[in-house]
Amino acid sequence: MGTSLSLGAQRRRFRLVVPIAVAFVVVFAILLQPGFPRGFREVASSLGLLISGIATAVSLWLRTRRSTGRRRRAWQWLLAASVTAVVGNVWMAVVGAQPVDDPSLVSDLSVALALALSIVGMLTFPAARRRGRNLAIMVLDGTVGGAAVLIMASVLVYDELLASVDHVLGSEFFSVLIPFLDIALVTFGLLLVLRSRGESRPALALVALGFLLYAVADLSFAVRVAQGTFAWGDLPDLGWIAGYLIIGVAAWYPLHPDAPDVEEQRATADTRDTVLVYSAVGVAAVVQTMLNGGDAIQRAQVLLWLLLGLAAGLRQVLLTADNAQLRRGLERQVAEQTSDLRRMARRTETLITSVGDGIYGVDAAGRITFVNPSGAEALRQSPDALLGQDAHALFHAPTADGAAYPYDGCYVAEAIASGIVTNAEEDVYVRADGTRFPVEITASPLIDDDEVTGAVVVFRDVTQRQEVDRMKNEFLSVVSHELRTPLTSIRGSLGLLAGGQLGELSPRATSMARIALESTERLTRLINDILDLERIESGTRPMELAPTDVRSVVEAAVGEMDAMARGAGVELVVGETAGQVLVDSDRVVQTLTNLVNNAVKFSTAGGQVVVDAVPQPSGTTVLFRVRDQGRGIPTDQLTTIFDRFHQVDSSDARQKGGTGLGLAISRSIVERHGGRIWAESSPGEGTTVQFTLPLHQRTPATGATGATGDAPAVLICDDEPAVVGALSSMLEEHGYRPVGVGDGDAAIARATADRPAAVLVDLRMPGTSGADVVAELRRGERTRTIPLIVLSGLGPETAPELGPQTDGWLVKPVTEEQLVAAVEIALAGRLRESAVLVVEDDEDLAEVICTPLRGHGIRVDHASTAAAAIEAGRRLRPQVVVLDLHLPDDDGSAVVAAFRADPALRATPLVVYSAADVEVERRADLELGPTVFLTKGRSGPDALEERVLGLLDAVVGRAAEQDPTPPSDPAPDPATIPRTPPRAPHPAPVLQEER
């Protein structure tokens, strides 16, 4: 027996003990029937008291071993009381004492002591308040109850009950004292039962019931002693036996050792206790005055009334003092909290008024409730004039055609209606003088008791930023058109001079001409790199995406750099290559050339540079690697080397002739393809630069079964039915499920309702144009993450504002390969934006899990505790969570519970990766979205990687004919696939025809 005994085992034992106790009571109820001889019944009564007392003592002893804290001390006091009572009964049996003819003072004292110990035990239970004043009030409540019941008994049962008490320590005195203490115990038990709201309430109720039966038997005993008719073996003795047994049964009631006791509110308990106490006083008074038959009040009754009045009065004094103290404490707390609230209000007001951005609040109807000075100044209005105004109607600019902007499409209305944070990167407000200015806006809903009561809007004037962008574009235009022309002339002239075609030059002049020519070529490269990088990142540089053999691009890059490598004494080696990628081959060759160029520059003579490219185990990407044996890169610079103009050593630009843009361009090209690039290095041990590109997986047209119901849906929006039909046929051949619509409004409605894997939209359509469709889908909460591909007869330079909002651009007419490539690369880009949260306290195992996932271009965050996981989940909004159940600070179920409570996380796919098997009945409590259960002993990191990639594929809509939930160990039922949380769109890859 110990504290580790489960609740299930406790319940089974309790169900066994109850019928045994009932049977014991029934047996002795039969044995005490008047039909049996007096001597037989006396023996039966004594034996019953002895057996029930010992059984109760043993039960209480076992209960003390299973309990902790105050409960354990309470049960220990009751155990001491039980043992004391048993000793008294044994003593009385040994000496042959009789309560009337030959009373035993030792026996009477032991019983009275047992009852006093019981009172201490009852007051020790956690349901009793801990403060001494409250315990004193309970003692006084018991005193009032005992006195009131004795007065009523002396009037209603036997009028000589109290008159027989001739002196203290006499047998008649103890015969009255004992039921008095019993009634006090019953009062304590009743108060504790009413106060308790926890698991201990049934056990307390059983204890109170046991003392109630004991009180009835003791009161009967007192009456019969006063009448001189008491003898052992009568039926009233059954009250003692049953009382003992019920207290023993209470000790077997199942209870978790750490289960809390929940008390009702203090005010309710005090009111109810007062009503009970004074009800007892009132009933006693009525009985005394109405039913006493005109007899004089006995001296003992007078003493009881004095005791009763004194106890009741003292109780009320203590209760009043306690309430006064509590009131003063509450008043002090209210004053402190009011001061804190005022201080917080002043601090909040200071923060809002000091912020440079405009901030205003609106109620649920869109009326302004407050505005900060910066907001009022930006709108050229006074704060007082803005209060109560309809913000949307007052300063939200109309559409380009002059029509009022619809309120339902407003970001503020969306925040209020949906209860989510909305934003607009570009919107237009109107000042009081009618001038317009561009703003960037974020609207956050105000939620009170799960009800949206309004919104807080933060806006920023971006006029200056747009002016800077315009100046940058003008500068690039000047660089492109004005600097290149004279540079070309200068370079050509210097080339002619250095080559001797304009006549022989002196050796010194020839040297100067060559230096000038090399500097001109370096300046030309710098200009070209800057323009190249800007075009790639702005999404205006077309990309020709097509299935390409990996080996061809690797060999092209190595062949281009071979002469340079031979001149530096560095050997270029083509390693293992395999597979096809869906890429713009020229851009990939440019990336590889940049990387090989860097590797050769920083390799010593006799060194080797190895270039290889192999498909990843996931079957979705190809990993390209360029490895050198150069000086290496410091660890703290491995991420910054891809920034613009970054040089590991400031002297590199002069010594190696670099511009610091090659790696930045390479990163932009890789990310435009939906891949990821990174470097691994240690100083003095060489560097490996790696990047991933999407593996081309073309579904053969021959024998193709077409799209299935599980295939990714692609929404096609074009006002020409023939175009919709042709594009649909192409996509069906490659395993997609096309859905055609003929106008922009239908496209918006269908995309919002169905959330397809991708949307193809024609720009020029009557009514709602393709640009309107793109803007609306990017603004909608359900559609902002759907990949969008534009169909147009013109290139992306005609609509530069759409480039960053789309994931692809197709110039009509479109070939089948271009169409499929655009869809595949758009979906691959969504996979690159995916995030995985790994919750694992073992750092080594976490590294083993994270490394291969990062190799697929996936962002992986690691948390080693439950608290860190909950914080990371709310910040990261991952697409998949890998969770270990045994964490240092809490169980993994706490992480699941926290994610379930967050609407943005409750449908997140989950992989539970635990050391032990998860029981079937527990799995329902550990599920989020699609949930997979893996055991570390049976499923290694490779299997885990496969499951995570499968869930990611399902999230981004790429798995054409796969079960969206990979199997567990064993597999659970599949669940609904969650939607990807909102994320800013990535600049779009662009496909167009060669002209």
From TrEMBL:
Predominant place of localization: membrane
Reaction(s) catalysed by this chain's protein: ATP + protein L-histidine = ADP + protein N-phospho-L-histidine
GO molecular function terms listed in the Swiss-Prot or TrEMBL record: calcium ion binding; histidine phosphotransfer kinase activity; phosphorelay sensor kinase activity
A family per Pfam: PAS_9
Cofactor(s), names only, from the UniProt record: a divalent metal cation
Entry's Gene Ontology cellular component terms: plasma membrane
Skewed-composition ranges (Pro residues): 964-988
Entry EC number(s): 2.7.13.3
InterPro entries to which the protein is assigned, alphabetical: CheY-like_superfamily, HATPase_C_sf, HATPase_dom, His_kinase_dom, HisK_dim/P_dom, HisK_dim/P_sf, PAC, PAS
Entries under Gene3D superfamilies matching the protein: 1.10.287.130, 3.40.50.2300, Histidine kinase-like ATPase, C-terminal domain (3.30.565.10), PAS domain (3.30.450.20)
Transmembrane feature ranges: 14-32, 44-62, 74-97, 109-128, 135-158, 173-194, 206-226, 238-255, 275-291
Compartment list: Cell membrane
Keyword Membrane: yes
Name recorded for this polypeptide: histidine kinase
Organism: Nocardioides marmotae
Top-level taxonomy: Bacteria, Bacillati, Actinomycetota, Actinomycetes, Propionibacteriales
